[in-house]
Specification:
alpha+beta; 15 helices; 16 strands; 42% helix; 19% strand; membrane; transmembrane
Length: 460
């Protein structure tokens, strides 16, 4: 049986949370997913700097020496083009997920959401339930209130400091960082960044919370561009729920013209953004599913079917079917796949050596005491691995010429070395004033580590 909804009931009545938002703790199917996923992501975040690889830290973003070390590979500043590809892949991946599942990134995997969930969990354990926290904040200051507040903030600060230290372990060797922390030997620069990140974590997760999502984060502002009528979002079934109103559990509410919504307001009390989803989709909604779990609990208690609030697209809410094969979704997926494939090809073709040939433009050539024409060169060689390698230099393109270069060139991992070399040839044997040549630099330890660079040999 369907009820006609009056026009005045369809007018959106904006819900505005005055002051701080006191989030009611909620359990349920979607919250279980959020918690498990949050723990997994936090474990990965903390554990990555501790992964060893060939006796070294597997991932180390050494900004001081301008080297990014990732599983034995050293990425230098001129390799930072890969960052642009990573950002583009992340952007189109996010666009794809958003067009398909709405703001699930915000609700389930965003660091701001995960740390906010952790901080509210601590708050609930120390200060009590939502009603107890409201009562505590309204109460006058006494020893008990001060103790609870100090305990909560102390735990928040410990979490913030641990978070900041874990983050710095990506830029400073983890073992050195923690050893220096326990011996109080942090440098001024390390101390500054750790305490800055700790302060930001403490402020964002403890105080700003939803304001970061609603005001500072640009994603909430342009998300609607990626939505379409088939995007899954948290949806309130107004046709089924209205007219809303309180009632007894076993009363004949339909005879009174009421819908399934009992107006318990739990969907508002659990919302971390402080919105009322019954007023329709709002940009503050982060698709976390808290209101769904709260509403389903209420529906179970009253013996109603669940799904009054659920994940559904606009077409599904209107009784239509949603097609997974739509142009925008396929387009985002295709661009994401192309960028990932490009990154894979770039990584496959990347050689762990970089070199360049530097000429002295003021003296392109000279004639030595034997009457031979000499061309001096400086080879700039970069070892992009994390192991010390030994290289040898050869050249081709000029028959009868002799190369004067070190027999073996030792370069430490991640280091650059300038190597002066000279090519000498009899000028009468060379017909051209500028002859193209190629230098080949290869590692003795691994023949696949080789690079060829073009240059020229000049004569008068």
């Amino acid at each position: 049986m369907k009820f006609d909804i009056k026009e005045e009931d369809m007018i959106i009545k904006p819900y505005k949370q005055e002051g701080p938002i006191y989030i009611r703790e909620q359990k349920g199917f979607f919250q279980k997913i959020r918690r498990y996923l949050g723990w997994i992501l936090m474990f990965i975040f903390v554990a990555i700097p501790w992964i060893p690889y060939k006796g070294q830290q597997a991932i180390l973003l050494d900004v001081a020496s301008q080297q990014f070390r990732i599983f034995g590979q050293t990425f230098l500043p001129h390799d930072f083009m890969i960052l642009a590809w990573i950002f583009m892949a992340g952007a189109f991946g996010l666009f794809f997920v958003t067009n398909w599942l709405g703001r699930v990134w915000c609700g389930y995997t965003c660091p701001q959401t995960i740390w906010m969930l952790m901080f509210t969990w601590v708050e609930h354990r120390v200060e009590g339930t939502r009603n107890q926290r409201i009562k505590l904040d309204k109460a006058s200051w006494n020893a008990q209130k001060a103790a609870r507040k100090m305990t909560k903030h102390a735990i928040w600060l410990v979490i913030s400091l641990f978070t900041a230290t874990s983050f710095m372990a990506y830029f400073v060797p983890a073992k050195t960082l923690y050893m220096d922390m326990f011996t109080l030997e942090w440098s001024g620069l390390v101390s500054f960044w750790v305490f800055l990140f700790a302060f930001c974590t403490y402020g964002n997760a403890g105080f700003l919370r939803e304001k970061m999502c609603n005001v500072a984060c640009p994603y909430s502002r342009f998300q609607s561009v990626m939505f379409d009528k088939d995007t899954l979002v948290v949806t309130y079934d107004a046709q089924r729920g209205e007219h809303r109103g309180p009632r007894k559990r076993k009363s004949d509410y339909k005879a009174k013209g009421l819908g399934d919504c009992v107006d318990c307001n739990l969907c508002v009390e659990v919302c971390p953004a402080g919105i009322d989803i019954r007023n329709g989709l709002q940009y503050e909604c982060i698709n976390c599913g808290l209101c769904i779990d709260a509403c389903d609990d209420t529906m179970h208690k009253f013996g109603y079917s669940t799904g009054l609030i659920k994940y559904a697209s606009e077409n599904q809410a209107g009784g239509k079917t949603s097609s997974p094969f739509r142009l925008k979704l396929i387009g985002y997926a295709g661009l994401f796949a192309v960028i990932v494939a490009t990154m894979a090809i770039w990584a496959f073709n990347r050689t762990p050596i970089e070199a360049s040939v530097i000429r002295d433009r003021n003296a392109l050539y000279r004639v030595n005491f034997e009457g031979l024409v000499e061309n001096p060169y400086t080879l700039s060689i970069i070892n992009k691995t994390q192991q010390t390698l030994h290289y040898q230099v050869s050249f081709n393109g000029l028959q009868g010429a002799e190369l004067s270069a070190p027999q073996e060139i030792e370069i430490q991992g991640g280091k650059m070395l300038l190597v002066p070399v000279t090519i000498a040839a009899d000028g009468y044997d060379i017909q051209r004033k500028r002859t193209p040549i190629q230098f080949t630099i290869s590692a003795n330890e691994d023949s696949s580590i080789s690079i060829t660079k073009d240059s020229y040999f000049y004569k008068n």
